[in-house]
Write the structure tokens for this entry.
Amino acid sequence: MTPTLVRQHLPHSGAAPQVDQWARARDWAEIQERMLVPLYEAVYERLEVGSSTRLLGLGCGSGLALLMATARGASVTGLQARAPERLALARERLLPEAWGTRARAGARLTDGEPADIGDAATVAYNLVTAFEPVGCVAGDSEGLAESLAAAAPLVGPGVPVVLAGWGPPERCATSSVLRVATKLADPLRGTGSWRPALRDDLEEVARRAGLRPDGSGRVACPFGYADVDNAVRGLLSTGLFDSAVTATDRAQVDKEVREALHPHARRDGTVWMPNVFRYLIARTA
């Protein structure tokens, strides 16, 4: 769920809204990213990620999934294009020499795509992950199949590739909040508009990338927040409301997101939204 998943649209005035990308990246890393920890754990447990794992993470964001893999002993390489703020936060977590602490052994981060890794002839990754969930907004898988195909020279045959996506909307309470983005984005509806996840979203990406499906699973990933303010910051950090902000303004989006969150607020002020995410394990040819 990064800002790069949602294409930018020009608002009626012709000027793009100003976004503090550093603040957004911090909100993602400190509030929202942890919601997917059960997904990462389930995948790593199923694939027995450990000291023999050489993991290539596509769209690694601020690096939480990579950090969890290194805690299991894996060597990791993270790729993130067009999101320098999140990559900087990943470096703080995994390569923190500038902060006077020890870097995670076997960790490497690159700003770019698979083609930007210069040692394709010597590196042989045995696990590829693309944890950025697809199947939530129109066009959110655009370019993913190409990135997966471009990673082929870095792995051998039969290597597992993990794709992640939203589960059925009736199992995802957050869907009701995400619909606000589509409502406000009209008449700019198109890429970036919310749509219900489809049953074969992940399989379609795998097919386009030339991968062979080899198992899947579903994981409960509830979104829990300290309060409504915390929830708004976390949800807007995903970039999924960018088209709505462009079509209206931040204040309007903030107001309507708060209203949509009201049914999910509990008596103690916390916000709780049960969700189900899906993962697909595919194999390289």
Observations:
- The longest helix spans residues 21-32.
- The CA atoms of residues 99 and 159 lie 35 Å apart.
